[in-house]
Amino acid sequence: MLLSERAKHEGLIIVDLQNDFCPGGSLAVEGGDEIVGAINSIAPSFPVVVATKDWHPAGHVSFASSHAGKQPFDSVSVSYGEQVLWPDHCVQGSAGAEFHPELDLRPINLVLHKGTRLDLDSYSAFFENDHATPTGLDGYLRGLGIRHIVVCGIATDVCVFFSVTDALRLGYEVSVVQDAVRGVDQPEGSVSRALDTMRTHGARVVAASEL
User: Fold this and answer.
1) Catalytic residue among 22, 53, 159, 166
2) Is residue 34 part of a domain?
3) Which of 8, 40, 48, 171 is surrounded by the fewest CB atoms within 10 Å?
4) What is the predicted pLDDT for the residue at 5?
5) Could you give the 3-state DSSP secondary structure of residue 210?
6) How far apart are CA 102 and CA 191, in angstroms?
């Protein structure tokens, strides 16, 4: 069946659906595993599917363990501004860095690794946390004619949020699948604030059943 003209220009971004962000992982998001079914159901309908991975070297700048006397969710000042500190997570080559085992990998065209530099974190799928170093995703999507992106994954108030706001800033039409995202919600209320901010900036918040 031929794709509609609209569908030809749509792409799906699956953000960081990795073991360390799911129950049992080192930085587990409540219900992170509950979105896998919804993502598997929508992914085959997109001509382009990109899945991102945090892919940190050991001793990464974002790890609380890399800073003496610091605890997870503390902050430190680094060269590109304030950095929230996290438990060690998604270390390159570790089981925690792998995709959730129930995620269907067959529709995925590109796996994008981010946060690979020791001294620079990356929340957004489009830019490192210095907000200047591109990941290459924008060029990839534009080269394929993608104008509308649909975003799902983890975490609503961190990597999903920054990916969506960067995509809007780059001129994409953006939809967020509310029943296919989960958030850290630290501090409490950050998930609802992130969704409200994404709406304010122009993103549509939709259900998987609408796609």
Assistant:
1) 159
2) yes
3) 171
4) 55
5) helix
6) 25
Q: Tell me, yes or no, whether 154 lies in a domain.
A: yes
Write out pLDDT tens, residues 30-60: 999 999 999 999 999 999 999 999 999 999 9
Contact 94, 87 (CB under 8 A): no
And the tokens for 120? 């620079």
Asked if residues 118 and 112 have their Cβ atoms less than 8 Å apart, the reply is: no
Task: Tell if the pTM clears 0.90, that is, is over it.
Answer: yes
Question: What confidence tens digit (pLDDT) does each residue in 59-87 have?
Answer: 999 999 999 999 999 999 999 999 999 99
Residue 185 lies in a domain: yes
DSSP 8-state symbol, 169: H
Number of H helices, E strands in the chain: 5, 8
- Residues forming a β-bridge with 154: 182
Q: Is residue 67 part of a domain?
A: no
pLDDT digits (tens, 9 = 90+) for 145-193: 999 999 999 999 999 999 999 999 999 999 999 999 999 888 889 999 9
Residue type (1 letter), 88: D
What range does the domain containing 134 cover?
5-56+92-210
Contacts of 202 (CB under 8 A, 6+ apart): 168, 174
Can 16 be counted among the known catalytic residues? yes
The residue from 16, 33, 54, 88 that is catalytic is 16
Question: Per the residue annotation, which of 20, 33, 114, 121 is the catalytic one?
Answer: 114
Q: Look up tokens 């001509």; give the residue.
A: 47
Q: Which two tokens stand for residue 98?
A: 């792998």
Task: Quote the number of domains for the chain.
Answer: 1
